[in-house]
Amino acid sequence: MQFAHLPPLAASLFSLLATVSLLLSFVMLGSRWISSYLYAFAAESWTIAALSAAVGFYGGYPELYLIALLTALFRGCVLPYLIWQIVRSTRITQEIHVMLQPSTSLVLGAFAVVFALLIGVRIGAQMGLSQTVIILALTVMLSMKLIGFLMLTLRYEAISQVLGLLVLENGIFLGSQILVPGMPLLLELVILFDLLVVVACFGVLVRYLMRHVGSTNTMQLRKLVG
Question: Which CA distances in Å does 202 have to 83, 156, 196, 197?
Answer without folding.
Answer: 9, 13, 10, 9
